[in-house]
Amino acid sequence: MTGTGEVQTFSGPVDAHDLGVTLIHEHVFVGHPELDLNFPHPEWDEAAAVETAVAGLDRLWELGVRTVVDLTVLGLGRDAARVARVAARSRVRLVASTGYYTADVLPPYFHTHGPGLLVGGPDPLVEMFVGDIEVGIAGTGVRAGMLKVVTDRPGITPDVARVIAAAAVAHQQTGVPITTHTHAPSQNGRDQLVLLAEHGVAADRVIVGHCGDSEDLDYLRELADAGATLGMDRFGMEHVLGDASRVRTVLELLRLGYADRMVLSHDAAFFSRVTPPSWRAAHAPNWHMENLHRRIVPMLREGGASEDDLEQMLVRNPARLLTPSR
Fold first, then answer.
1. Is residue 154 part of a domain?
2. What does the alpha-carbon distance between residue 268 and residue 146 come to, in Å, rounded to a whole number?
3. In whole angstroms, what is the distance from residue 229 CA to residue 207 CA?
């Protein structure tokens, strides 16, 4: 069981009050192990990527960022040992995550292993998630401090429902919070909260991710009024929605009194095979982890956000959410 008030990081447990300014939805490296092994990406160089990440975290430190949550879970090429090499050289704390990233189906292994399936046994997803939190990831000793689940355009498929159910079990056993990936146009954050509630997860332990992709205030207020935290976490993804629109939505929600129900981040990466550096440079030049402090925070201040609002969204809310509930 995770100790109350302590958040697990790559460098060990940290009191939640010491996390400081936190980017709660980011990625260090996103890959695909099978593709990476058989068809290496021409822009990937591991040694250079590690140096890029270390330098990027150094710049974040100078901007005042003290903690970054790495939401690279199974399905996104998670390599905790590689990220640990970055964390060992950084003043910025990194928080590891567990969960499974699939928008539709799980790999065949999961269709034969588990209760009532061909091979049988307990659900390996639950064992993986709980083990990552309580013991450590892949023999590194690094314990996960966040759970992540996904729904996208296909909605809650049977395998997605299984992942969510397993995450709920892991949450109940460990108290570690749950963050989600959603498809904002489908407004399927609603479905996530309903299913998680059916499995005993309180909405105030859930961050509904990618809410910043939506400008529908009725939808966003519905989620927040249910107790969930809104992940306004894709600043810089202007190929999805411009930052000016994202800022307007945050400012309106602040005006309506939702400062305690929002967190800010980018969903950026130092390297992603899905959207590699050359593509990002050409099509999403502001999609990086410095965007908040270099561009967005000044825009929020200019629009009327107070220093207390910013402290709430970047410090107090992440600390509250990351504190295990048992």
1. yes
2. 17
3. 5
Confirm whether residue 267 is marked as ligand binding: yes
Residue 1 lies in a domain: no
Residue 199 in marked binding region: no
* Domain of residue 244, CATH code: 3.20.20.140
What's the pTM value of the predicted model, to 2 decimals?
Answer: 0.97
Residue 2's pLDDT is: 38
pLDDT tens digits, 171-226: 999 999 999 999 999 999 999 999 999 999 999 999 999 999 999 999 999 999 99
Q: Flag whether 32 is marked binding.
A: no
Q: What angle do CA 97, 99, 101 make, to 5 degrees?
A: 110
> Per the structure block, which two tokens stand in for 156?
């809650």
Beta strands in 54-187 (DSSP E): 65-70, 93-95, 97-99, 146-150, 178-181
Q: Is 171 annotated as a binding residue?
A: no
Domain of residue 294, residue span: 6-322
**Residues 83 and 10 sit within 8 Å (Cβ to Cβ):** yes
Distance separating alpha carbons of residues 56 and 43, to the nearest angstrom: 17
Q: Is residue 304 part of a domain?
A: yes
Binding site annotation covers 25? Answer: yes
Taking only the tens place, the pLDDT of each residue in 3-52 is: 458 999 999 999 999 999 999 999 999 999 999 999 999 999 999 999 99
The answer as to whether 13 is a domain residue is yes
- Cα dihedral 55→60→62→66 (10° resolution): -120
213 is in an annotated binding site: no
C-alpha 94/C-alpha 37 separation (Å) is 26
The set of residues, in sequence order, having a beta carbon less than 8 Å from that of 260 and lying 6+ positions away, is 312, 316, 317
